[in-house]
Automatic annotation (TrEMBL):
Mn(2+) binds at residues 151, 153, 231. This is 1-deoxy-D-xylulose 5-phosphate reductoisomerase. The keyword Isomerase applies. One of its GO terms (molecular function) is isomerase activity. Pathway: Isoprenoid biosynthesis; isopentenyl diphosphate biosynthesis via DXP pathway; isopentenyl diphosphate from 1-deoxy-D-xylulose 5-phosphate: step 1/6. HAMAP family: DXP_reductoisom (MF_00183). The lineage of its organism: Bacteria, Pseudomonadati, Pseudomonadota, Gammaproteobacteria, Moraxellales. It comes from Acinetobacter halotolerans. NADPH binds at residues 11-14, 125, 127, 215. Residues 147-239 form the 1-deoxy-D-xylulose 5-phosphate reductoisomerase C-terminal domain. Keywords: Isomerase, Isoprene biosynthesis, Magnesium, Manganese, Metal-binding, NADP, Oxidoreductase. Signal peptide: none annotated. Belongs to the DXR family. 1-deoxy-D-xylulose 5-phosphate binds at residues 126, 152-153, 186, 209, 222, 227-228, 231. InterPro entries: DXP_reductoisomerase (IPR003821), DXP_reductoisomerase_C (IPR013644), DXP_reductoisomerase_N (IPR013512), DXPR_C (IPR026877), DXPR_C_sf (IPR036169), NAD(P)-bd_dom_sf (IPR036291).
Amino acid sequence: MTQAVCILGATGSIGQSTLKVLEQHSEQYTVFAVSAYSRLDELLEICRKFHPKIVVVPNEKVSELQQRLNQEKLNQIEILSDETGLIEIAKHPDVDIVMAAIVGAAGLLPTLAAVKAGKRVLLANKEALVMSGDIMMQAAREHNALLLPVDSEHNAIFQSLPHDYLTTERTGQPQLGVSRILLTASGGPFLNHSLEQLSGVTPQQACKHPNWSMGQKISVDSATLMNKGLELIEACHLFSISEHFVTVVVHPQSIIHSMVQYVDGSTLAQMGNPDMCTPIAHALAWPKRLKTHVPALDLFATAQLDFQAPDEVKFPALNLARQAMRAGGLAPTILNAANEIAVAAFLQQRIRFTQIAQVVEQTLDAVQNAKAENIDIILHTDMIARQIAEKYIVDIGG
Ligand code: NAD
Ligand code: MG
């Protein structure tokens, strides 16, 4: 029996790595549905190779895609569009596994739909969980969805936790002998830059990560350490642990992908060459294991593993995220929305790198926090925070 996979964001970095793993195990998995946003050439390549039943693109791309599919005699592939199409494939009854790999808030409703349909959901789209927190986790429990982390750190934490940790009581306290989570961070491309140097870095430099090849938005987030801040919030929700029990450790080699400490003095780590195919394969097959092309770690070649505390003065985004998690309610939604707008403005060279965190901080101050009671309030707050962040960017000359 093969399992049918839906990939939300198939043309992106995580989407492509997922397809690479699936291709290697085509006897076990079929690609049932995929979505793309702007890259039609990549989408057509996926259609030729994997023959999905359904593809989803923005409405304005439908006619061009239909023409190109017709030309290639791939017209049996059904085309759906926009958010309704994404939700439809995410909850489709023939789908067993959903890879949530859209970047940003655009992935929230489709990911939530997959969770509510009780799927095995492989979560790469951390912004969806940062925004919706308890609502997403509650929906997973209510609908018996298996929400498995693909983010390399969270996947490493999951691998280092006791086997039944995800189903233990959710109290905010570490359970089953766990005492602390050590969330590792590479430190990004500007780890050793001075504050002055940071203010002059370009989008191109920010997108050149030393260890990982990723989409633009997460690359900038890695450079500001906002990625680690979002991951801190992600870890608190996934593992039901308050931020107080999560320590961020800068580990520039990205060989240890995170650690779990236990009350008896043990520290368990998951290690491997930095390649997202490993956590993707793990989440696809868990509790089984799938072979990947990723070579086993050669410790003699690795030689050195370094650790240091993050510099929260140079990289204030991390602490903004920790404060947002501590404040709770809608604060993480506001943080995420402002960050998405600020990163986009930095990529368009409208603001400086160091102004990203300023925009986030100002927006957090300006938007009223409240209880995140339901998804409509979250979406409304996301919209307001975006408007305020955008206004602040214009005010500072962007
Ligand atoms: P990417 O930019 O390479 O790909 C993003 C995907 O999202 C594309 O397939 C695009 O079609 C789709 N998309 C973009 N905007 C959209 C919109 N408005 N509506 C619908 N679809 C849209 O990004 P990525 O690096 O693959 O990251 C995807 C997610 O995975 C992000 O949330 C990121 O934080 C997370 N993640 C990525 C990595 C990595 O190594 N790349 C690691 C951990 C977590
Ligand atoms: Mg990560």
